[in-house]
Amino acid sequence: MYRVRRWVVRHARVFEMIYRRFEPVLVKLAPVWRRLGHERVEAPVRRVEKAAKGALFDCQMCGQCILSATGMSCPMNCPKTLRNGPCGGVRADGHCEVKPEMMCVWVDAWEGSRQMKQGDLIHAVQLPVDHRLTGSSSWLRVVRQQDASSSSAANRETTR
Amino acid sequence: MKFDDEPVPGYSLPILPGHVSPGRLERVLRAGKFAITSEIDPPDSADPAEVLKRAAIFDGYVDAINATDGSGANCHMSSAGVCSLLTRVGYATILQISCRDRNRIAMQGEILGGAAMGACNLLCLTGDGVQAGDHPQAKPVFDLDSISLLQVARNMRDEQRFESGRRIETPPRIFLGAAENPFVPPLDWRPLRLAKKVAAGAQFIQTQYCFDIERLRDFMLKVNDLGLLEGPDRVFILPGIGPLASARSARWIRENVPGVHIPDAVIARLEGAKNQKEEGKRLCMDLLNEIREIPGVSGAHIMAYRQEHSVAEIIEATGVLEGRVPWYPGRDDPKALNPESPEALSL
Ligand code: SF4
């Protein structure tokens, strides 16, 4: 919901903290996910992820979440699905060019990022979306990635 | 400025050391001259003569011509089509690609095709939303955004790779550009966002219409502080300007064209004038004179929609070319092509 997601962005710092606690837990559970089988857990995890992130961020399940680099404002709610910042059409009052009734997703993102500890991640160039991942769980993807990199380089520090 | 290897129409110039493209725009900018670009409004027609006629209006006054790509989300002849016609007679063109209408497969194909036709400047754009144009019922694509498109284009040129990783045999030798709008929110992010564009590969920037010189000055100061105007990866900035036809049209543009910021003072100035159209031109000249004094500005992009003939007047009156006559078909050999003749197309 629009109102909820804007409230979340105004409290981006809190949600950043929650995420920072939550992610290592998910990753720690990697052996559990592995034992259960990633394919088998994908559907239930996806459902939980969709419900939680849908309610908070109006998440569109792109499958490659970058909320931590966008001030907790989901870029997939931008009518142009821009992932690297605002277009040139933002209205003088900060509202969206395409949907004038909505605040520009990226104006919110900028404000959210200014509150976050790692807010400068917003300056990183984001790669194009991989549309094959649409609808899949971003959480499990992070788990798989970190799991793979920690097992391939056991003696290298892998947390970001 | 004259280059001793000045072109055989339709053929690329040699690439100078430290340059990425064979184009004249890059040469003029890197030589430190004040560059002028302008844009063609592509016709609603399949008539090539119409394109050449529209380009000839700028003869001797511009260093490169942008061919807009469905600007304002309205359908016209494609940018690649216009560029191909123009490069055949030797014009320097800026191919525009907007992310609105094509996915990455189509866009990368277009970059190769454009480069093969001699369109060696590429402007990577997000594009106006479809709601702004004559086909609001169309599917907006936005598979990439302007920044990921820049990065894809740079990798095509420098790494010789498609986005998929597949190898490109002969890479496109292109000078990469992007747009920026320093005049709309979030204002404090805009210079940093420009830095992101430069990091993704932008080498020149054409801005949205500037009617607010203070905002531009502010922006340029910050861009300078960020160190974006120095070194081999520096960016060249060409603010956009244009003549307003009247106070009424200024108001209409402000309400209806996405991203154009026109301060009240500008509208008041037009309203107070006897001849609003003349005043619009004078305002544009004043802006150009002020812009060229701002440290770090490398040129100007003149968008004179439906007033294309005034571009020459604006440039003459301000003297920004400092006596330079940018190349055009027939500049050095008056007997050469008359671009309005059908023979011009049979090269
Ligand atoms: S104004 Fe903001 S939300 Fe709207 S299309 Fe542009 S970037 Fe996206």
From TrEMBL, chain A:
It comes from Halomonas ventosae. Residues 41-131 form the Methylene-tetrahydrofolate reductase C-terminal-like domain. It comes from the Bacteria. This is Methylene-tetrahydrofolate reductase-like protein. InterPro entries: DUF5981 (IPR022026). Pfam families: DUF5981 (PF12225).
Automatic annotation (TrEMBL), chain B:
Transmembrane segments: none annotated. Gene3D superfamilies: 3.20.20.220. It catalyses: (6S)-5-methyl-5,6,7,8-tetrahydrofolate + NAD(+) = (6R)-5,10-methylene-5,6,7,8-tetrahydrofolate + NADH + H(+). It comes from the Bacteria. CDD domains: MTHFR. Its cofactor is FAD. Pathway: Amino-acid biosynthesis; L-methionine biosynthesis via de novo pathway; One-carbon metabolism; tetrahydrofolate interconversion. It holds the Pfam family MTHFR. InterPro entries: FAD-linked_oxidoreductase-like (IPR029041), Mehydrof_redctse-like (IPR003171). GO terms for cellular component: cytosol. One of its GO terms (biological process) is tetrahydrofolate interconversion. Keywords: FAD, Flavoprotein, Oxidoreductase. GO terms for molecular function: FAD binding; methylenetetrahydrofolate reductase (NADH) activity. This is Methylenetetrahydrofolate reductase.
